[in-house]
């Protein structure tokens, strides 16, 4: 992807909100779901095309999307684990901790770390935190529920 830095947004009929992405160079740095966007915000970006297709029912993994994660290393490991959860599958926080290097699902601090990383996920949808059923999502609750419903979760 060879895109310019900027903010891009497009309205989603399914979510009844906009999907907005922040891009720096060739990497996505944020995904959000505002009710409104600035009228000068561009709507033309290939990642938005893919996200809208996903919201219309296309099975999309987003594994090839370059994401710039500016989060602590431990959070990065959790988010990289969550990024591997397949479309239509749901994991528990315990399973995410078990699959994440250097975490122990029996350690309360590690379980808190998983929940915190998901709650602070800068790129929901691209890193599908909605596929972890017993943890917070960085997306607003109504968006999280629609994403789960979309995937039959």
Secondary-structure blueprint of this entry?
Blueprint: E1 6-12, E2 17-24, E3 27-32, H1 46-55, H2 73-83, H3 93-99, H4 108-119, H5 141-150
Antiparallel strand pairs: 1-2, 2-3
Quick structural gist:
This protein has helices spanning 46-55, 73-83, 93-99, 108-119, 141-150; strands at 6-12, 17-24, 27-32. With 153 residues, the protein is α+β, with helices and mostly antiparallel strands.
* Average pLDDT rating: 93
- The protein's oligomeric status is single chain
What's the CATH architecture name of the largest domain? Orthogonal Bundle
Form type? globular
Q: How much β-strand is present in the residues? A: 5-15%
Given this structure, which CATH class of the largest domain is correct? Mainly Alpha
First-last Cα distance:
31 Å
Give the number of helices.
5
What profile does the largest beta sheet have? 3 strands, antiparallel
Can you put this structure into words, describing what you see?
- The chain has 153 residues and is α+β, with helices and mostly antiparallel strands.
- The protein folds into two domains: 6-55; 73-150, Winged helix-like DNA-binding domain superfamily/Winged helix DNA-binding domain (Arc Repressor Mutant, subunit A, Orthogonal Bundle).
- Helix content is 33%, strand content 14%.
- It is built from five helices and three strands; from the N terminus they run βββααααα.
- It has helices at residues 46-55, 73-83, 93-99, 108-119, 141-150, and strands at residues 6-12, 17-24, 27-32.
- Strands 1-2-3 form a three-stranded antiparallel β-sheet, with helices on one face.
- α2 crosses α4 and α3 (93-99) crosses α4.
- The model has no long low-confidence stretch (mean pLDDT 93).
